[in-house]
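Response to reviewer comment R2.3. The reviewers asked that we include at least one raw input/output pair. We reproduce the pair for Kynureninase here without editing.
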Amino acid sequence: MSDHRMTQPDESVLTDELVRDAAALDAADPLAPLRELFVLDGGVYLDGNSLGALPAHVPARVADVVARQWGELRIHSWRESGWWDAPERIGDRIAPLVGAGPGQIVVGDSTSVNVFKAVVAGVRLSADESRTDIVVDAATFPTDGYVAESAARLTGRRIVHADPRELSAALGPATAVVLLNHVDYRSGRLHDLPALTAAVHEAGAIAVWDLCHSAGALPVDLDAHGVDLAVGCTYKYLNGGPGSPAYLYVAERHQEAFESPLPGWNSHADPFAMDHRYTPAGGAARGRVGTPDILSLLALDAALDVWEGVDMDSVRAKSLALTDFFLRCAETYAEGGLNGVDSRVSSLTPVAHEARGSQIALRCAEAPAVMDRLAGRGVVGDLRGPDVLRFGFTPLYTGFEDVRRAAAALGEVLAEVPRA
Ligand SMILES: Cc1ncc(COP(=O)(O)O)c(C=O)c1O
Ligand SMILES: Nc1c(O)cccc1C(=O)C[C@H](N)C(=O)O
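Raw output as returned:
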């Protein structure tokens, strides 16, 4: 892009244009009023793909859970405050955000633990000793890879790493389970969930998707695309709070045969019978393990209120507009533009909308110093070492002027930090 800058208009003209366009985009943004629902400061928060911002009403709701439900009702709250059924009830609140019908999602444990449940149960569902392979996204977020390796050792399978873009080469009659990330945590690349799920099924295998970086940022449509099993966290675009519990989706058609490797008493058909023989619960509850983390779970429950009446297609449209605008601003503000021979930064995130999640990852040789200085200017993104600047765009609370200011700050910082 930057190779053509000599023929472009003067820098200040371009900058004025960006200021005007940001204002016009903000004025036309149907999701703009939702920003008021969040606690934000005067900086620019572009790290909602790591920890979502706090919805302003959550502290009072959590205070009620602590002071009244726990403090006054104590043990009665398991029934009277709906604590016992909260994992399935809150799963049903997440369901429409990921295109799942009710009764298929249970909330609890971490994503890592749910990856374990899903991969082992996926091998058991594939029910065929000749299916020896667990295929794992070669660029996966590390925890999925670590857990899948352990699941492979425990089930007597082997791990095969594959680039999701070349998945078909790794698939065949030996494939038991395929574990993929919907959006790559580092590059922000969005993988083609419908086509890849179909390819996995064509090979007779089970598709497990990690939705950490897509749920709440773009439509997922789990049921429509016939996904078998899925997991995701709730502290990124779902704004559930630090360490808020993750979720597990088991498609209804698999629930009867779903065999959890962690069959704790909460997943028993009759937990209070205290039966020494295990009889699994039906439905989503079969994915439970032990006592749910009620305080975090109910903070998440409250946080999900911000989604009332929000349609995921508008979220996706805004997410793409935000990332497009960021790329345009970075092209103007960053020394040498973007992706050119003299550029200080180049985008790892695909330009094509169909291959882009809700973040932009910029490769920059001086990334650690640049991210530090951005933080000093109130622009929060994160560093994925050694050389990636990662910026997440949460459509519910990020505006276009925020995006412009962040890119302008990036330009200033690049001018201060010497080339490596
Ligand atoms: C794609 C992905 N999977 C899993 C995790 C980790 O999940 P947890 O720490 O909740 O187990 C993360 C982020 O932390 C992630 O980005
Ligand atoms: N889960 C996190 C945590 O407990 C501390 C710091 C960061 C995280 C993250 O979520 C990292 C994130 N999954 C990533 O994509 O890099």
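The pocket of 3DJ (ligand 2) is lined by residues 50, 141, 185, 212 (CB under 6 Å). The radius of gyration is 23 Å. Further pairs are available on request from the corresponding author.
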